[in-house]
Amino acid sequence: MMGRIVAKSWRSSTNTQRLGGLVKVSAAVRDVVIASRQGSVAFAVLLGAGLLSPALSRADAATADTVQTSKASAGDEEGSLQEIVVTANRRAETIQRSSLEIQAISGAEAASAVSQITDLSELVTGMQVSMSGGTSQIYIRGVGDYSANPLSNPGVAFNVDGVYVGRPEAVNSNFYDIERVEVLKGPQGTLYGRNSSGGAINLITNSPTLDGDKGTLNLEVGDYGLVHTDGAVNVPLSDTFALRGAFNVVSRNGYLSDGTDDDQEHGVRLKGLWKPNEDLSVLFSIDNEGIGGKGTGYVYLPRRPGADPWEAVSSAQANAYLFSFPGSTGIITQQTDSRIDNSFTNVSMQLDWNLGFATLTVIPAYRHSDTYDREYNAERIDLFDKAQQETFEARLSHSGDKLKWVTGVYYFNEKDPGQIEVDVGPAILFSKIPYNPTGISYAAFGETTFSVTDSLRLIAGARGTTEKRELNGIFYLTPDNGATFLTHEVFNGDKTFNSFTWKLGTEYDLTPQNMLYFTASTGFKAGGLDQTISPGNIYEPEKVLAFELGSRNRFLENRLQLNLEAFYWKYKDQQNNHLTFDTTGSINFLTQNAGDATLYGFNADLVAKLTRNDTLHVAAEYDHTKYSTFTYGIPDFLYNPAATGCRNAGLAPGPFAPLTQLDCSGYALPHAPEWTGIIDLSHDFDLASGAAVELGASERLSSWTWLAVDFTPEERAPGFAMSNARVSYLSPKRNWTATAYVRNITNATEYTGGQEVQEVPQLIPVTISPPRTFGLQVHWDW
Asked: Is the Cβ–Cβ distance between 656 and 585 less than 8 Å?
């Protein structure tokens, strides 16, 4: 039989592992993925073959109170593929019956390959994740959010156990004792609402069960001083009540030369389940997590001649490199005292009650975060923040043979007082901005799937959202290196936004093993208020309209799976952050609606059981993006031709001085490489004792991409191919597993994000993925 790790790797059409490196196999594919569009031939053949083939499996998934991560198919003993059950549509269904563009990572795979949000981009094509301080910046097909302060909104909704996480800095601490992770690509405005213009990520942690005492323990050691341990214990206290406690402790030194890009975190979670009968269950959860250490670090592009790719900006050599560029006079010296001190406390409850005609689900939740970050990226930024979030969701759902529907209401209330300090250099800018943003959002939603025939289903859904944003604060500047701060600008305001999103679609079963689907849907990222006065203090919501055509297919008695999707998106009113004149005529860093874009492409995902002991996974995504309009203005005296690749469209009147208008239309979206791909191959050796040895190898590939919206040559990150390898021993009873791994074997460089320094546009600080690492993981179940 397949071992534990193999089984978890191939339960979904999209799962792949970060572990393994397939250098020989990937060499033939590398040029296809990284090269120009001539390389699309192989993928076009794959797409055409799938669309011309009879389509796939639609067996009903059993509805469950607690959804298990995987459900073995009937032919598992013979080596067929398995199914993964997801709840992204607010009901239990297999991925193969869903018309969502969804990728799922099982709990076992997450335990071995995902410890931070950035790790997800190594498993999901078309997704990029960067960090700014402790704040995550998540992009799906180029749709996301670049800014990193509480005045902005993420473009990809992140949810933990059904609770939306409003602050992007709070997502990194939840990755332990995981049942599964669901990544939804494309706007999710109907069921997920605001801030899901690019998609949604659902992290589902393991819940208590009533079927006996059990537990798990993981231990990982590796280079850079890595020691990582996590585990969980499940204890039924009666026939109707059970508890599950989990913990997570990580300590790792930084990948960069000054110790930044480290990982110092801890977390504990307690969940309880009360199930007095088959119709009623109540699940409660409380957890606390902390993140410390030095936090995110930066390196320079272009790289200093002779420098190691992971040379931090704070090194003496990097500082000398910075000061060798024109315009660097007055910029502060980059220091080594970067740090992060974040803590998060979360409480939630979920009630599920079968009323007969429908199931009532109620989820109240409270989240609190207390964060402080200091980072250096050719300036020093100190960010203080205390956020409180209250949410409430109530919904009714029904899943019948002919009709499946869900309807509900949602409430979100967030208070997020904090302060940001920016020191570019006393001669340039030294400021602090205390602020107090608040936001309240209400929504009502519904979605239904109606079976016209046994093979044809129609989908319709809608959501109405009203949200009110308020902001007040003070912009301080200092004339004397921070000894005295003078009031520069007092800002306050409020704004109510109304949004309507919808979804229409159809699903058609060609055979019991094939499905075609088409959906049209909309999503939005919330509007908000900026750190200035009216009328220039408001930015409107950005919106995405998406069309998706796909097919889900299985062949050869469930030994071959081929899932395909073509997409076309219209991206409107993108929110862009840049320096400009505000209403008072002051230089300010504001968010403005600056651009519209078109995105189209396709995704192909193939999983094959080559033999009972061999599994191959190949996934590729083509993503063509282009700004149809993208213009904004900067103060004329700040305009530097070297600071942008956009066209100078001339002068326009500003509040107190002319603005140089920049036209960036025609460029591709940042964080949207044209090609991304994954290849993974695993083989099991069955031993006479009943144990098994598994060899795994994988390669992740990407073409070049822009890191920011200035479109200078320095912001064009090159493509890469990243190889990984692993070997695992699985005990005869499969109750323990040991895995040795090497990641990024060739020390490939993947740059994930960047921010131009206006004074030195020829040099940008960027974030970078880890170098080559190795380690040993041991997993126990009892």
From this structure: yes
